[in-house]
Amino acid sequence: MTAHARRIGITIGLNRADESLWTNGIKQNAVFLSDTLRRCPGVERVTLVNTTAVPVTSALPWDVARWPTCAFDEVKDDLDVVIELGGQLDAARTDYLKTRGVRLVSYCCGSEYVHATEAILAGRPVWGGGLFVNPRYDDLWVIPQVAGNSRPYFEVLRRVPARVVPFVWSPAFIDERGRALPDGGVHVPKRGPVRLAVMEPNINIVKFCLYPALIAEQAYRARPDDVALLQVTNALALAQQNPDFIALMNQLDIVRDHKAVFLGRYDTPAFLAHGVDIVVSHQMENPLNYFYLEVCWLGYPLVHNAALCPELGYYYRANDVSEGAARLLEAIDARLGDPHAWRERQRAMIARFLPDDPLVVSTYATLLDALMRRPLR
């Protein structure tokens, strides 16, 4: 075998044949990584490999001609490297691949230490009474935003040192989605009081709506006539069923004045296009994700504390609500500028995350070459 990884598989785990790309970022991650790897020298083919029993059909939300997708059994004899990303390989499949000399990479893109810790402390079973951690990875790749909290966790359990690898994103899906939306989905500024959006997942402390709501509250107290509405998505159940959340929200003037609504789940581009002027966000230990890039690519002002992309939008530090409110007021004042020029500046700064960025491609090419030169584990 040469040092080149000519045939690469990236695992996904389909739950439905027509699964939405906007449920979470994991399948988008696999697609964007495939776009990067196929640009690496010596790579002949990159295939998305489904590890579940769900059939691969034309109902998939991506073009299988552009992004070839197969069931594991269809492609298992035709791979040099398998990158386990969105679908786990069990011991039997691992053994099979290893007998064929296939390298196995664990690609880690979730805050798994946080998820596991919160689940354990809250008494919510994660693994259904059984946990398989594969001990036979040849390499461990971790994206930068989860390295801080989860890298040591991954290294000990997966029994191999980790390498921090470039984060990759592409506008392919959000541009396609935008074609069906008003103005192509891009932000068109409107005069008058602003409509704010908070769109955190609200499934754990990493990305939760509380601090963005407090930032909106501080700005509203300072200039109430400038804020028309605060919209908090992924929060309907909290607002209806969680007495502690309800009690906290009822302390806010913006809620008491009936200028806040708590809504269910929406996909990002559609929700933005139908009534948002500025997005307010907050994260803990996850300082870069697709949501920030989606919002800024479409030209919406983003108030955020993501330290791995401070050049985007309106950045505030850590948990500084006062600074966040000041940046929000700054965004309100600047919102009627040239939207095209703003959007193009944002896109230029996002370019370093795109699959065709030369540094991104060369870094992954180096990772693949080093992987293929090391002895098989």
From TrEMBL:
It comes from Paraburkholderia caballeronis. This is DUF2827 domain-containing protein. InterPro entries: DUF2827 (IPR021234). Pfam families: DUF2827. It comes from the Bacteria.
